[in-house]
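Pipeline run #58 for the internal structure catalog. This entry was flagged by the ingest filter as a single-chain record with no existing model, so it goes straight to prediction. Upstream metadata was stripped on purpose; only the residue string is passed forward. Reviewer on rotation: M.T. Logging verbosity set to normal.
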Amino acid sequence: MDQNQVKKINSKQIVISADNNGQRIDNFLIRYFGKIPKSRIYKMLRKGEVRVNKGRKKQTYKLKTGDTLRIPPVYLDEEKSKSPPVYLQQKILESVIFEDEGMIVINKPAGIVVHSGSGQAHGVIEAFRAVGEKYEKLELVHRLDKDTSGCLILAKNIPVLRQLHEIINNGEMTKFYSALLVGQLDKKKITVDRALSKNPSNEKIIIDEEAGKQAITIFYRKDVFNTASLVNIELITGRTHQIRVHSASLGHPVLGDSKYGDRIINREYKKMGLKRMFLHAKSLSFVSPVTQKKLTVEAPLEANLISFLDKLSNSSQ
């Protein structure tokens, strides 16, 4: 490694303040180091290079006020740690649909990850933090899949982050999605209450009534086309890939879903103009921890999805 491009971050001891109380240690370290790969941070934790009160901690450990962290020395390859491109920073800034002193909500574009990792150099959080000091302390409140668009919340400080997590964990946030599913739904309302777990052999989420975690999704039929149904979806729980797995379990997978969908049908719809998975986080409603008033934020569909629905409607007449 070229020493001219290497920066050393020295070892250090940090005492956790009340601002970071309750934050996961992996998220704290990701913020602290900024540009080093997440894989290096998780390796530090696995090998015990990072110590909390002189002991090892797992990545899920939640920091407490007064904890003493021993941070190991780290060499940063600055050439491999370039900032997100300007076009990505601009795109993310243009996607903001709500902002106050405690949080930001964006209409996340499809095709952009929420954070770097798994082969992705930059995501939403890195793009925001690269913009400047105003957004350097942003934290992701929840996640959306790379190919899912729509409402994504980021907190401006740790206290607001904790409050929003509490709102979500208590089921006090109403979440609606829009999706285009394969086939014609024969009911106006379908409730799916089927537990989910991860299949360790292929990393897919599967229905697992015995050992899985409860997951509840409500599908509301909105429009029916010749070979597809547009639905509004209320997400009661927020498990990984929940909508995608539950819709597939009904025999009506999300169109464009390469992981749980129908490959042949997806190919046909791609030829018709559907270039992405048709899943969109439509709206969020909750009591704002900043104003203590009910807040509803809606993210409009991308223009290409609206055009595709018009095309389907015309062909169904």
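catalog note: The chain has three domains: 7-80, 86-164, 171-316.
catalog note: DSSP finds eight helices and 17 strands in the chain.
status: ready for reviewer M.T.
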